[in-house]
User: Fold these one by one.
Assistant:
Number 1:
Amino acid sequence: MKKLQLYTLLFFVGLVVSGIYPKEYFTWFLEVLPAVIGLAILAFTFKRFQFSNFTYFFILIHCYILFLGGHYTYAEVPPFEWIKETFHQTRNNYDKVGHFAQGFVPAMIVRELFIRKNVISNKSFFNFIIVAVCLAISAAYEWLEWGVSLSTGEGGDAFLGTQGYVWDTQSDMLYATIGAICMLIFFSKKHDKAIQEQFQTQ
């Protein structure tokens, strides 16, 4: 419980700091809103289902990725401006970090739900369905970005963050898919161990 209290404190610290003189307040609001909604959902469902601290930690990291992108806008995050100039890239690619996390973290969340609720009886389809769910989440987010951009005009351009790249939407979904696959390949065993250690008495 102490870890969760620390994670909650760090969440609000990051949220508040990110909201101090951001590049654009409207864009900041749009970018951090998913994190705030996510926290509300986790708090509302906490008594019925508590995730492992391992999963909560990565959720917090994802929130900080959103906070940073909201503060600077995804097209102007300073370290990735340096990478852009150093490696002669045509755009600031911080948004790809965000979309990688958009696949990685939901994969961990869905995986834990599937394991502990015994959702998938046929394990042959286990990883495939997790990746498919993450891709669906990514596609839905792209629809959201599209809708916001259409409804707000130039105000939503920074939120959309295409930076003139015609394949931005498709590459965003690709990075989310890669993130989900990487989570399953490299973190499944650690995830299993964390779940077992924390909930073995339940």
Note: The chain is about 75% helix and 0% strand.
Number 2:
Amino acid sequence: MIASPDRTPLPRNFFDRPILEVAPDLLGRVLVRSTPDGPIALRLTEVEAYDGQNDPGSHAYRGRTPRNDVMFGPPGHVYVYFTYGMWFCMNLVCGPEGRASAVLLRAGEIVEGAELARTRRLSARNDKELAKGPARLATALGVDRALNGTDACAAGDTPLRILTGTPVPRDQVRNGPRTGVAGEGGVHPWRYWIADDPTVSPYRAHVPRRRRS
């Protein structure tokens, strides 16, 4: 049986390209999370690019560490990190092996398995909010550090994979500053989203965290 075009997994060479080519091209693609309770499929509507050691906003800017090691690995793998002591965020590694770059998955539309996603996102007021923001996206899909390093391009059973979906026409793609990024990295217009899509998260400039006295 030949898979329909929109359900065809993206090949590894899709991710083995410059980060600023991959990031906008991920919009409209479908991320499938397989779980014991059933699958959840999400159409990507918002992403952010991070260019490793060339990018002050990237986790890999100061070099390789145990935390960011996956970013230096083969393209098409999943990089999951923990932030603010409470949330997980999910990225897809891009570019050639040994050169760290990744795309943060910021938001998406749940197109399959919404019932399961709702059980993980009880505070969502409607289905448009289920994956509206990177931490919400990871929570809705049940993504945590156990999935760090997962090969999203692997054949056969895999907990995460990326399908071709329906690429978004370039005239529907918008870009602007990344959300919440401080310093020199905050000026890069490397956040990409689908114009007028209700699942896209609102832009927020970086606000320094106050230290407790």
Note: Helices lie at 12-15, 19-25, 114-120, 134-141.
